Amino acid sequence: MNRSLPHRLLMRMPMKWLFFILKNFHRFIPNSQDNTSLKVMNLYSKLVIDNTYKAFCSPNKVIWTTIFLPSEILYAFNLIPFSMELASGMLGEIGFTQNALEKSDSLCDSTDFCTFHRASLGHVANGMLPKPIGIISYNYICNNNVQTPKKCAAVVNKPLLHLDVPLENDNEAIPFLASGIRNFVKDLENLTKSKLNPEKLREVVINAEKTRKIILKINDLRKVEFAPSIVTEALNFFVIRNIFTGSQEGVVFFQKLYEELLEITEKIRKLRISNKDKSKIIWLEYKPCYKSEFFNLFMDKDHEIVFEEMNYIEWPELNPEEPFESLAKKIISCHYNQTGEKRLSIIEKLTDDYKADAVVSFSNWGCRRNNLLIPTIKKRLNDKGISFLNIDSDSLDPTVYMHGQIKTRIEAFMEQLVH
Question: Would you list the domain boundaries of the chain?
Answer without folding.
Answer: 5-418
